[in-house]
């Protein structure tokens, strides 16, 4: 029983060695003959491509964002009078950042507290946004699904301390701002 197992393991090992793609020394490209310590970025990229050449292709949702196919937009169902809707559909599944300004003259801590509260409210409404402070009165809200940015904008401009929300270079004034722009 034990000898049969050992024989099977040896056969599998022998098959894997004989089926693996290996270059003979004279067939190797020049970059493969170099010492690994002398590899440059291009050599490492070729090595990675060679390593991954027999791998199964990744599913579209596993690909990096820049390699994913764009979402299909059905132009027949889009109202051309509402360009915001077209933007929202085109950003579905893509990362998008919006800039949010707090009115008044807040300290960095006050801005942090206010935007943290807004972020929590968005999360409670199933809108996932990461928040990064960039100034005493300004923060970036980053959305993994860009379509959610417009829903978040609708919430944010209703907030008492919201001065301005900027998405895709379009600015939306907060409804309670005191014309501080």
Automatic annotation (TrEMBL):
Domain of life: Eukaryota
This protein's name: Mesoderm development candidate 2
GO biological process: protein folding; Wnt signaling pathway
Source organism of the structure: Anopheles albimanus (New world malaria mosquito)
One Gene Ontology term, aspect cellular component: endoplasmic reticulum
Localization (cell): Endoplasmic reticulum
The keyword Metal-binding appears for this protein: no
Keyword Transcription recorded: no
Keyword field: Chaperone, Endoplasmic reticulum, Signal, Wnt signaling pathway
Any one Pfam family match given in the protein's UniProt record, by short name: Mesd
Major place of residence: endoplasmic reticulum
């Amino acid at each position: 029983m034990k000898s049969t197992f050992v024989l099977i393991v040896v056969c599998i090992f022998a098959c894997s060695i004989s089926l693996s793609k290996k270059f003979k020394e004279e067939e190797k490209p020049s970059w493969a003959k170099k010492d690994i310590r002398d590899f440059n970025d291009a050599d490492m990229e070729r090595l990675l491509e060679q390593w991954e050449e027999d791998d199964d292709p990744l599913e579209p949702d596993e690909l990096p964002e820049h390699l994913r196919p764009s979402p299909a937009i059905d132009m027949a169902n889009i109202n051309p009078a509402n360009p915001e809707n077209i933007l929202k559909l085109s950003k579905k599944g893509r990362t998008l950042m919006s800039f949010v300004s707090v009115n008044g003259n807040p300290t960095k801590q006050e801005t942090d507290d206010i935007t943290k509260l807004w972020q929590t409210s968005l999360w409670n409404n199933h809108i996932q946004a990461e928040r990064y402070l960039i100034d005493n009165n300004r923060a970036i809200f980053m959305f993994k699904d860009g379509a959610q940015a417009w829903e978040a904008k609708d919430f944010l401009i209703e907030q008492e301390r919201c001065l301005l929300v900027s998405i895709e270079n379009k600015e939306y004034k907060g409804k309670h701002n005191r014309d501080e722009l």
